[in-house]
Design brief:
The protein is α+β, with helices and mostly antiparallel strands. It has 9 helices and 14 strands. 36% of the residues lie in helices and 24% in strands. Strand 13, helix 8 (331-343) and strand 14 (347-350) form a beta-alpha-beta unit.
Length: 374
């Protein structure tokens, strides 16, 4: 459901306060600002204009440009919308077009909610409306849901599934947008994955992973308390009778896999050299795994806590989230990278785009399971 806010301009012209955001970067943004007009027969029509803004020290400022009225014969003006921007535009226009059919649109300074008929329940009883509104304002109390589950358990389950699916779809869109913009650092990615632990829920070996400890300490301290090793997060596989720890290390999607060389140059005999950052990240997660195995997991407090929960550390595996397959732009690089990571023992390397597409697959599976009730 979308809420449309309007304000009066003239007797036949109504402004709309809801711009359709098309594209936004750190420095620029484009959006469509809609409005409504009413003809002599009382029919309401949608209109609007595209606006391009740049960010200044005082905030967003409209960028001056050539008006179409000033275009001379033979001149041409055009701008392109990418797929994401076009989808935003079409979704927004669809909602606004439905708004034109609302009879009370001529009422000034009003808010209107637009939704598909099969997605809403019309409440004509004025006594019932405040009761339902109260439930909504209270965030649907546990008593409300327990009553719903008792009366219609299948409906409560369907709603819960769709709520989860909606949140995960939003997370995948955020994931993809963050990769495209490339502005998040490692702590930002770590925070995102911590908030969306379901993304790591299915390992490449089809073992479910659950987070045990964020920013885990793996051991390695000397007698002065220095020299300890710390990683991004400690997970464990989930089984009925036994669970095993797995270390996860997170870098950035733009982290370089190979050395930057001149065109056509390679490390040796058509073998591209790995970037130092890549080698260090791999060494870090492997050293952390070894330290955790022989030190951290063997400390009495750690071992007792974990084994009481059925979690064990035996030659722990590790997962490194690093880079993007767009860097594998030659046959030599593709061969080198895939052969290398395929031969690693107990360490899996997953690129960000592979992780994103796996997230989309999980969403697709959830959508397919939910489709009969949609």
């Amino acid at each position: 459901m979308a809420e449309i806010r309007t304000h009066p301009i003239t007797d036949s012209f109504i402004g709309c306060d809801n711009p359709i955001k098309l594209e936004t970067t750190q420095r620029t943004r484009r959006f469509f600002l809609p409005s409504f007009s009413k003809d002599a027969q009382g029919n309401v029509h949608l209109r609007g204009k595209f606006i391009y803004q740049k960010k200044a020290s005082t905030g967003w400022v409209d960028e001056d440009g050539l008006s179409l009225r000033d275009v001379k014969a033979g001149d041409a003006i055009s701008f392109e919308l990418n797929t994401e921007a076009m989808n935003h535009f079409l979704d927004g226009i669809s909602v606004l077009h439905k708004t034109t059919g609302i009879a009370s649109l001529e009422e000034r300074s009003e808010r209107f909610s637009v939704a598909l008929r099969n997605k809403v329940i019309e409440i004509n009883d004025e006594n019932l409306k405040p009761v339902i509104q109260s439930l909504i304002n209270k965030g649907h109390s546990s008593h409300f849901w327990s009553e719903l589950a008792a009366l219609r358990p299948e409906e409560a389950e369907k709603f819960a599934d769709h709520q989860i699916l909606g949140r995960r779809r939003a997370s995948v869109r955020e994931f993809e947008e963050a990769m495209q913009k490339g502005v998040w650092d490692e702590p930002a990615w770590d925070k995102f994955f911590d908030k969306n632990r379901w993304i790591f829920g299915l390992g490449l070996r089809y073992q479910f992973l659950s987070q045990l400890q964020k920013q885990a300490h793996y051991g390695g301290y000397d007698i002065t308390g220095r020299g300890g090793q710390k990683g991004d997060s400690l997970h464990y596989t989930v089984g009925e009778d036994a669970k095993f720890t797995v270390l996860v290390e997170i870098k950035r999607p733009d982290s370089a896999i190979f050395q930057i060389t001149t065109k056509g140059q390679s490390y040796r005999n058509a073998v591209p050299g790995f970037n130092v950052e890549f080698a260090n990240a791999l060494a870090q997660v492997q050293v952390n795994s070894r330290t955790w195995e022989i030190d951290g997991s063997q400390k009495e407090a750690n071992r007792d806590r974990l084994e009481n929960e059925g979690i064990y550390t035996i030659y722990p595996r590790s997962l490194l989230i690093y880079g993007h397959t767009s860097q594998l732009d030659t046959r030599v690089k593709r061969n080198c990278f895939e052969i290398f990571r395929g031969q690693l023992k107990n360490t899996e390397i997953v690129t960000y785009d592979e992780l994103l597409n796996r997230s989309k697959f999980i969403i697709g599976e959830m959508s397919g399971a939910a489709s009969p009730t949609d």
